[in-house]
Specification:
- The chain is α/β, with parallel strands linked by helices.
- It has a single domain, classed as Glutaredoxin (3-Layer(aba) Sandwich).
- It has helices at about 5-25, 70-85, 100-110, 125-130, 155-170, and strands spanning about 40-45, 50, 60-65, 90-100, 120, 135-140, 145-150.
- Helix 3 links the parallel strand 4 (about 90-100) and strand 5.
- The chain is globular, with a radius of gyration of 18 Å.
Length: about 170
């Protein structure tokens, strides 16, 4: 026999899903069509990096953290299906660790043997130019410096869309 609470539980779940979608939209500060904000960051190797160096390139900016389960699911695919496969002088990948200390990030990168470029955003200054909460987040920047794709969270079908979009942008 179905519980009388069943319809209310369904409504609560559905409402929660809608709220999360609305909330992720409202927490995305730089939307598709907007100019990429100017920023500087530091690589895991200690080198300063300016977003001005990305001019004329298609760029994937990925915000992540070592404690984030969806990030941990996404990063191996980012390594294998994007960084290792898309070799183009007009393409850059920036994986920016959000809110973590250098030692923690280094240990994580070494443990999983990632070779993509990693940048630190310990104080979330760069992240806060793009969004106010939730990771992982991906932003694809076109050669013109405008955001052409923005995603929140990790879903394999969205990740495949991300790859297709990068490949399409490189053909332009």
């Amino acid at each position: 026999m179905k519980s009388k609470l069943y319809p209310f539980l369904l409504l609560a779940l559905f409402s929660g899903a809608l709220f999360c979608q609305d909330d992720s939209e409202s927490t995305t500060l730089k939307k598709v069509g907007a100019e990429m904000p100017a920023f500087t960051t530091v690589s895991l190797n200690g080198e300063a990096f300016s977003s001005a160096a990305l001019k004329g390139k298609v760029t994937l900016i990925n915000f992540w953290a070592t404690w984030c389960p969806p990030c941990k699911a996404e990063l191996p695919l980012l390594q294998k299906n994007i960084f290792d496969k898309i070799k183009d002088k007009n393409f850059s990948v920036l994986c920016i660790s959000r809110g973590e200390k250098e030692e923690v990030v280094k240990k994580f990168i070494e443990q999983f043997k990632y070779t993509f470029p990693v940048y630190l955003d310990s104080e979330t200054k760069t992240y806060n130019l793009f969004a106010s909460k939730y990771i992982p987040r991906n932003f694809v920047i076109g050669k013109d410096g405008k955001i052409v794709y923005a995603s929140v969270g990790f879903k394999e079908d969205e990740f495949k869309k991300l790859i297709r979009l990068i490949e399409e942008e490189l053909k332009k």
